[in-house]
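Worked example
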Amino acid sequence: MNIKKMSFFLRLLCLFLTSAFLHAQDCTEFTFPNNGAGNIEVNTTLTWTEVLGYNGYILSIGTTAQGTDILDRKPIGTNPFYTPPLGLPDDTTIYATLSLVPYDGPPIICDKLVFTTVEVTTPPTCSILITPDNNAGSVTIITDIEWAYVPTATGYYLSIGTTPNGNELVNNLDIKNELRYNPPEDLPQNSNIYVKIEPYNDIGIATSCTEEIFTTSFAVYVCDPYISETTGELIYRAPIINLLNIVGICSDELPYTISSNDNADGFRWYLTNSGSEETLLSETQSVAISAPGKYRFEAYNNITTDAGDIECISSKLIDVVASEEATITAINVNNLPLGKTILISVTGGGQYEYSLTSRDGPFQDSPMFVEMPTRNYIAYVRDKNGCGTTERLVDRDISKKDFPSFFTPNGDGINDYWQYVPPIENFESVIDVIHIYNQFGSLIKQISPNSMGWDGSFNTKEMPQSDYWYKATFINQQPIMGHFSLIR
């Protein structure tokens, strides 16, 4: 292998190792439980270090190495924690695998974890209804029954009736390890419905569990749309909700007011969290929220029927997400035969899109631009939720004009060192090294682009006033050669 090919190979190897090292630094790792830990609670929350700049995490959990019988490669968003909704089996070795999801590539496996859960020695406690809420009214007759997970429970017995302690609708049915039941037939309309949930495990059944109650509305078809006999138009009895499912707000806008322009007789806003009761926040068209999260909006019309007045309700779950203007941390430029490859790196809590054209776009989701013609660019990063656009000059190629034509090392503090001048402030140099030669071609100094530069001496001896030559070598650009004058 000749010297030129070997040099090229070594550069590629260096770039590969550097990329692999930087990539390894981005990976996340479990912080709880510790690897090899024992006696971990069955309702434990797995946590890991947060890594920004990625599309989220993928988690697998199983009872065998590489197993996914508990959780099969589930995308779980950007939160650095996860609580299995049905808990974990007791006295069992648990295996977990955590991966990062890039915006423009396949998932990256980062960490694996093994731990053992505690042995359960007591029966579980009682559960509570989630849907419908206890004492809820005007519940549709086709509702599902949902209840909260109980730590250490491995199954639930369910009874449903229309009288206290009644079970004529469902009689002590073993639901297994599920948190939802879909009645095969409609519930009785305009009735009190009594529900008892009794969790169990291998040790025993929960005792003294309280019966809960809700009231159904009239048959759901009363609120169905119908065609007007006079106009032929489709008439909706329940309001039409036009709010978006996702509302993006800027972090500096809290508290934030969300308003509906929908037409209805009444409105309700709820804060809703998985595994807990909803909290009523407002009964007007607007609600002031103090934090991102999940909210439910109801709009209803009052309908008079022969059996009484009912509410025809439309409901929508709204995810309020916080965003912020991006911070551009770096712009990497690689000069390739077909053009430049430009990669924009950012930090921030928003969802971003990228452009090299203008503040008005067009924008793309990927931060990488390929085969770009050689010219100067400005990078624009826009938050998709309207929280601002950040811009920064893309670092241009270094040229001969970035190297001074002379310097005067006389100790007056002005031009005492010869060094290349970065084209812009905070420019990330791609220069590898600069060699300085005398007029006869002898190497007299080798300097780093990050050093003070050359002070005009060789082996502590001042060099004479004359012209000198330099050669700057790069990682991804052809060398630049030129000359300058030492003036005394």
About this structure: Residues 3-26 form the longest helix (24 residues). The two ends are 46 Å apart (CA to CA). Confidence is low (pLDDT under 50) at residues 1-25.
